[in-house]
Amino acid sequence: QSALTQPASVSGSPGQSVTISCTGSSSDVGAYNFVSWYQQYPGKVPKLIIHDVSERPSGVSNRFSGSKSGNTASLTISGLQVEDEGDYYCSSYAGSSTLIFGGGTKLTVL
Amino acid sequence: EVQLVESGGGLVQPGGSLRLSCAASGFPFSGYWMHWVRQGPGKGLVWVSVINHDGSHTSYADSVKGRFTFSRDNAKNTLYLQMNSLRAEDTAVYYCARAGSDWKIDSWGQGTLVTVSS
Q1: pLDDT tens sequence across B41-96
Q2: Which residues touch B103 (CB under 8 Å, ≥6 apart)?
Q3: What is residue B49's three-state secondary structure?
């Protein structure tokens, strides 16, 4: 049950696009299309922004998109805005009724 | 509106026990699986445990297996996390969270802080 691997930090300028990767294994990310992404601001509760690899919940900006290839899932944020700055976490179902999170990525909007 | 309110956190010595509660409202509680997720100070989210809708099935992270017990009382719309043999590394904010379909977490409580220290 090791955490999924995410870059510790990414950065971009307003208007640019950034992509955050989430690498697991053939037992979790590669095995199931149950990958979710969460946004968390400091001191706040996480918010679901992507589920089922690429589905956006109602009310989430279409600037957020998700994809998966093999054992790696990705979150892309296009048209970066200052308010996108925060921490982002991926999660994946890992079989046997277990869930696993990534270590988190801090997004800085320069 | 979905509401999840955790309680029971606090300071406990290593080796001690604590029971967390989570009161749910605003949705048909007995129809949902539920999770506990924790976040150490300045650290990332870590999944702890899940329980099915009627409490007949639970699953745990390896780090807490055998020490933590997740249960629910559907008559009281309440979850419980019994934590025994606590260690310093269990220090974290503990969130109860609602499981949506396909293993997404669609609602979170505000969390309760557990500090394990002598």
Answers
A1: 999 999 999 999 999 999 999 999 999 999 999 999 999 999 999 999 999 999 99
A2: A32, A34, A36, A91, A92, A93, A99
A3: strand
Q: Do B46 and A3 touch (CB under 8 A)?
A: yes
Provide the token pair at B66: 């055998």
Q: Inspect the interface and report whether the beta carbons of B47 and A89 lie closer than 8 Å.
A: no
E strands, A1-110, in order: 9-12, 18-23, 35-40, 47-50, 64-69, 72-77, 86-93, 99-101, 105-109
CB B13 within 8 A of CB B118: yes
Nearest to B107 by CA among B118, B117, B97: B97
Picking from A48, A93, A96, the nearest residue to B106 by CB comes out as A48
